[in-house]
Amino acid sequence: MEPLGMSTVLLLTCLSCLLLSAIWKSGARQKGKMPPGPTPLPIIGNALQLKTHHLDQVLQKMSEKYGPVFTLYFGMAPAVVLHGYEAIKEALLDRGNEFASRGKMHLIEKTNRGKGIIFSNGETWKQLRRFALTTLRNFGMGKKSIEERIHEEAQYLLEQFRNTKQQPFDPHYLFSCATSNVICSIVFGKRYDYKDKKFQAMMNLMNENFEIFNSAWAQFANMFPTLMEWIPGPHHQIVSGSLRSEEFVLEEAKEHRATLDPNSPRDFIDCFFIKMDQEKHNEASEFTMENLITCSLDLFGAGTETTSTTLRYGLLILQKYPEIEEKVQEEIDRVVGRSRMPGMADRGQMPYTDAVLHEIQRFVSLVPLGVPHTVDKDTPFRGYVIPKGTTIVPVLSSVLHDSKEFPNPTEFDPGHFLNKDGTFRKSDYFVPFSAGKRICAGEGLARMELFLFLTSILQNFKLKPLTDPKDIDIMPRLSSLSNVPQPYKFCLVPC
Fold it and tell me: In whole angstroms, what separates CA 262 from the centre of its chain?
């Protein structure tokens, strides 16, 4: 018998793959009567059809073919994608309880282990989120007291800006320090000097982890966890980085425990210890040292990177559109003047500035795919049945860039949030913090920070780009888990 030729072997291999794919896809789809979607390949799923950058744009094209609800395979794991306002509203708002659970991500599972607020589920999530919201409110979130903390930090930030002496600088680190210090005042009961070595190390560590999580390495590690365990790469640094972050919080927690006064809690950590002591005889209590550390890191991370990135992106956009910057400064001068700092009470009288802030968040679409959800049981949805445990991907950018709600959605235009008479226009499509049961717990704090920091900066400085405004690139450098602006330097000129 003659040996098979290479062409015959390749043909048989291709036919086998196609057959396996058909059988695998048919079995998976029939099991749950799942939504349609592109044909997956065995093992790798739809990986070849997904770009690691601008994934939201790939999903936009797929939705045009398969509709607002479709199925993708990230490796061998199916995910149901929700695209557009109606589908996301129906799932996260109208049927919020059914879609409230958090989907799994391999790298997150390795570090958070189902603990904390953001990536936990069940009783862990319910109890810790309720406790966190109550504690944040008690320490001033949405109140005058937290506004005063932001004002204090804004003064430190402005002083750092003045020290640049109108020379070019990268604002990344300073914005991270400022936003981090606001949440530090709530979680740890103190702020850190921007030159504090321990604080600097934590800031650098957080930035490194954020970059890795947003990289192609992390995406592949989440899709092919077993394979990527054996392949060298920066994704392996996540666990060691997480452990170093935990050590930072643990050191703070030990100091708090040693000086704790149950009758006078100073911050989130004190309140958590008090709750731990109250439930020390409850073996099923969620108030453990592990959850204290993870909750603190959740608040610390979420309260730093998202707001600082939005501010950094916002200043880049305003450099490209100096006429918009000028209008904001005119409104600040008219409503606030120069004798005092802008306050939250001013926001209602500053519709143009409010519109610009909303447009920055809409245009940036900081977390374009949202954070994944899942269903805890087989769930009927729009004529399909989504099997228990299936990942749900709500594409938030599809709502924020809806062309009917926001004409010319890829253009930066504050008019998207202004009525014809110049008053502020609200929109149900404004979902940068997601929607429903899992909406960001720190939304109120983030909105205050964005308004107070941005207006304080523009009250005191004019932005001076290093290039012609028309040449400034405002497209994201990284666009997978998060849209991150191009690195840049600029100058600040005192008004």
Answer: 34
Which residue is it, tokens 């290479």? Answer: 6
Q: Is 462 exposed, middle or buried (0-12, 13-18, 19+ CB in 10 A)?
A: middle
Residue 69's beta-bridge partner residues?
Answer: 82
Q: How many CA atoms lie within 13 A of 273 on its CB side?
A: 22
User: 138 pLDDT exceeds 60?
Assistant: yes
Contacts of 234 (CB under 8 A, 6+ apart): 212, 215, 217
Q: What is the pLDDT of residue 426?
A: 96
Res 481: pLDDT: 77
The pairs formed by 419-426 with CB atoms below 8 angstroms and a separation of 24 or more are 422/351, 422/352, 423/351, 424/351, 424/354, 424/355, 425/355
Interior/surface letters 77-88, b for 16+ CB within 10 angstroms, e for the rest? bbbbbbbbbebb
DSSP state of 424: B
Domains along the chain with CATH numbers: 114-365+401-494 (1.10.630.10)
Task: Give CA–CA dist 495/463, Å, rounded.
Answer: 10
Distance CA 464, CA 168 (A): 9
Phi, psi of 219 (to 5 degrees): -60, -45
Interval 303-313: pLDDT, tens:
788 999 999 99
Is 440 annotated in some ligand binding site?
Answer: yes
pLDDT digits (tens, 9 = 90+) for 32-83: 589 999 999 888 888 888 765 678 888 999 999 999 999 999 888 899 999 9
**pTM for this entry:** 0.90
Q: Is the pLDDT of residue 150 over 90?
A: yes
Q: How far apart are the C-alpha atoms of 122 and 161, rounded to whole Å? A: 45
Q: State how far the Cα of 235 lies from the Cα of 305, in Å rounded to an integer.
A: 19
